[in-house]
Automatic annotation (TrEMBL):
Protein name, UniProt field: Uncharacterized protein
Membrane spanning stretches: 53-71, 77-96
Keywords annotated in UniProt: Membrane, Transmembrane, Transmembrane helix
Length: 100
């Protein structure tokens, strides 16, 4: 069975977390989706690229989540979420997935 790329896991966590929070009206549920996907991605980043890279990519994931909020005020919620998810996916691919 083929592994799901970490880029897809991380992007899905950001997009899915926002989508769940928005559609259910429960921010905590969206946060849970975000956290579970982030933890899964971090574990895989560590295994694929090492601890330092995993730490940097985890920091980027958290920064993308935080940065999407002020960005949403300028470009809208969904474009902000897709933009930061794409940035994290690209970083994840470059650091961890490309090697595999």
């Amino acid at each position: 069975m083929a592994k799901v790329p970490t880029a897809a896991v991380a992007a899905s966590g950001l997009i899915g977390g926002y989508g769940v929070a928005r559609w259910t009206g429960k921010r905590q549920l969206g946060g849970a989706v975000l956290a579970v996907a982030g933890a899964a991605a971090a574990q895989r980043w560590r295994r694929e690229a090492g601890g330092r890279a995993a730490g940097a990519l985890t920091a980027a994931y958290v920064a993308a989540f935080a940065g999407s909020h002020p960005l949403a005020k300028k470009v809208g919620a969904w474009p902000a979420v897709f933009g930061v998810a794409g940035a994290v996916a690209l970083a994840s691919w470059a650091v961890a997935d490309r090697r595999a």
